[in-house]
């Protein structure tokens, strides 16, 4: 079906033409059958199938052509900043010839520009749940203004812990009978369906199975390899395929950084994104990979959510995902909008246990290839390089060690160890310390020292100590009079061996 056959507003059709859209995708056609009639839809669809345009075109048509939606607003919820910005970009293209204004709202940056957008007026609000609630609590966004709601990538939202926020937002919106609601999710889990049942108005379920995309459009290959040889195999595969761009997935932040360091050490222009990366740096890296400036990107599943890269040549599962659904999310990034792609998976002894669950989910056995020795490339990575890479990227916190040292200096320079009498020693209490806290005035002049109020334990006599050691170790100790104890500070165990010697028998 072509867009011109849908009876859309003329201004919207011009925007669709400027976006380069002519024919509806399958998910768009199925969605429009119901959404353009004002009916709620619950859609299962993978990334890259055209779902964003499906709900944006519905929103524009409702706000432009339907009297009951005029002067109303639309709210789109998405799990990540990147997805919010992606939706905003597409919305502005589609709305080029309309008077409707679109703006995005997400955390990690200041409030000023977003507040300015609200003052100027916004018709389509695209937001992450947290920042939306911030503006709502300050009264700058009114939930009562929204007559259209879209929840995009609902399953990802739940995985990221947004479920309570979403339920709170839904309770504050106008009732389901007075709004149009569209929910999109890669999987229709129980929680997603419960949400639809509770907060949507008899939503029509549209199930666009992702299995067809996974099986037919993506060439999948799996290598069984030991953990200690995974990097050598990855280097060999990159040399063999020489992809224009590649997205590499690992299961932990630590492993992501290490892989990026190793690829850099071996001459690849590589970077990484993890969940706690500063927003400006994260957006710069994503822009670099999209523009072609950066060819190799390493990421965790959480960090890559909402990351859309057109014409991605290769996806590498450096680690098999522990969640079988994430396998589909990962490899689906290289076959967007029906295009073909290549996905390579490295199955090591640490994560291979998840392979049966993945193959059961995608209803196929992933083709296995066995790496020959010549496919394992030389790895030039050194521990020192990785350490310097982490330090340069500021992913580690070297200040922690300095903080620990400063805390240690707060303890008095002179530390005395006291030994209790035989009865008290059985409980072996911690040694008492005189704590001296030093502070300085603004000019650097020391002020009075504050010492611990605790009184030192009375020092045990030599006979008492001899008796204690004999009972403690079952040996007979005698004083070594040839050794004169040094006055400098020594540990208790050093004193034992310097003052006493064991007499055999």
Quick tags:
15 strands, 21 helices, 505 residues, seven-stranded parallel β-sheet, six-stranded parallel β-sheet, alpha/beta
Overview of this protein structure:
It contains 21 helices and 15 strands. It is of the alpha/beta class and 505 residues long. It has three domains: 3-208, Rossmann fold (3-Layer(aba) Sandwich), CATH 3.40.50; 212-393, P-loop containing nucleotide triphosphate hydrolases (Rossmann fold, 3-Layer(aba) Sandwich); 408-503, no CATH class. It is globular.
How is the quaternary structure best described?
Answer: single chain
Kindly state the mean pLDDT as a whole number?
A: 79
Quote the distance from N terminus to C terminus. Answer: 100 Å
Largest sheet: 7 strands, parallel
- The helix tally amounts to 21
How much helical structure, as a percent, in the residues?
40-55%
β-strand number? 15
Low-confidence blocks of residues = 395-457, 483-488
Q: Number of domains in the coordinates?
A: 3
Q: What gyration radius follows from the Cα positions, in whole Å?
A: 33 Å
**What is the overall silhouette?**
globular
Quote the CATH topology of the largest domain: Rossmann fold
């Amino acid at each position: 079906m072509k867009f011109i056959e849908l009876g859309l507003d003329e201004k919207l059709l011009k925007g669709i033409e400027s976006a380069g859209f002519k024919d509806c995708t399958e998910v768009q056609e199925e969605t429009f059958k119901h959404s353009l009639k004002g009916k709620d839809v619950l859609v299962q669809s993978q990334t890259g199938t055209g779902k964003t345009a499906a709900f944006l075109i519905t929103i524009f048509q409702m706000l432009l052509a339907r009297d009951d939606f005029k002067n109303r607003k639309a709210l789109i919820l998405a799990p990540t900043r990147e997805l919010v910005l992606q939706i905003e970009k597409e919305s502005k293209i589609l709305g080029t010839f309309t008077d409707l204004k679109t703006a995005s709202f997400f955390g990690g940056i200041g409030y000023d520009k977003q507040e300015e957008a609200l003052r100027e007026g916004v018709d389509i609000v695209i937001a992450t749940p947290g920042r939306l609630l911030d503006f709502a609590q300050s009264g700058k966004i009114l939930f009562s203004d929204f007559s259209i709601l879209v929840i995009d990538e609902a399953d990802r939202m739940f995985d990221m812990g947004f479920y309570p926020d979403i339920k709170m937002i839904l309770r504050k919106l106008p009732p389901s009978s007075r709004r149009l609601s569209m929910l999109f999710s890669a999987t229709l889990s129980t929680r997603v369906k419960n949400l639809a049942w509770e907060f949507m108005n008899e939503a029509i379920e549209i199930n666009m199975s992702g299995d067809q995309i996974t099986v037919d459009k993506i060439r999948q290959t799996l290598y069984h390899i030991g953990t200690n040889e995974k990097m050598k195999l990855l280097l060999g595969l990159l040399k063999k395929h020489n992809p224009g761009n590649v997205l590499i997935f690992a299961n932990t932040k630590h492993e992501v950084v290490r892989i990026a360091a190793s690829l850099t050490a071996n001459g690849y222009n590589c970077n990484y994104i993890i969940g706690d990366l500063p927003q400006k740096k994260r957006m710069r890296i994503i822009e670099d990979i999209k523009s072609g400036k950066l060819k190799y990107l390493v990421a965790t599943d959480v960090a890559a959510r909402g990351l859309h890269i057109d014409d991605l040549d290769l996806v590498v599962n450096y680690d098999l995902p522990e969640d079988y659904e994430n396998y589909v999310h990962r490899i689906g990034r290289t076959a967007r909008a029906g295009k073909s792609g290549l996905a390579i998976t490295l199955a090591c002894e640490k994560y291979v246990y998840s392979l049966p669950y993945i193959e059961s989910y995608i209803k196929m056995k992933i083709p296995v290839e066995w790496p020959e020795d010549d496919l394992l490339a030389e790895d030039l990575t050194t521990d020192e390089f990785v350490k310097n890479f982490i330090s340069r990227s500021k992913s580690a916190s070297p200040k922690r060690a300095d903080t620990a040292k400063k805390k240690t200096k707060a303890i008095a320079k002179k530390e005395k160890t006291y030994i209790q009498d035989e009865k008290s020693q059985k409980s072996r209490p911690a040694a008492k310390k005189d704590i001296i806290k030093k502070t300085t005035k603004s000019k650097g002049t020391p002020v009075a020292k504050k010492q611990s109020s605790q009184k030192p334990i009375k020092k045990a006599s030599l006979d008492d100590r001899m008796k204690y050691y004999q009972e403690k170790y079952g040996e007979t100790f005698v004083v070594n009079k040839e050794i004169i104890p040094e006055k400098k500070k020594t540990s208790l165990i050093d004193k034992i061996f310097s003052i006493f010697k064991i007499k055999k028998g």
